[in-house]
Amino acid sequence: MKGIILYFSGTGNTKFIANKIEEEFTKNGCEIETHSIEEKLDLQNISYDFLILGFPKYFEYIPHNFIEYLKDNLYYSSKEIKTMIFSTGKDKMKIYFHELEKILLEKNYKVIVTKNFQMPDSFTLGKGYKKVTRKDIREIYDSSLADIKDIVLNFLIDNTIKEEVSDITASIYKTIYKFKTRDLYKNSLNFSVSSNCDKCNLCVNVCPTKNIENINSYIKFRDNCIMCCRCVNACPKNAILYKEKEHTQYKENIDLVVS
Ligand SMILES: Cc1cc2nc3c(=O)[nH]c(=O)nc-3n(C[C@H](O)[C@H](O)[C@H](O)COP(=O)(O)O)c2cc1C
Ligand code: SF4
Ligand code: SF4
Question: How far is CA 5 from CA 59, 109, 111, in A?
Answer without folding.
Answer: 23, 14, 14
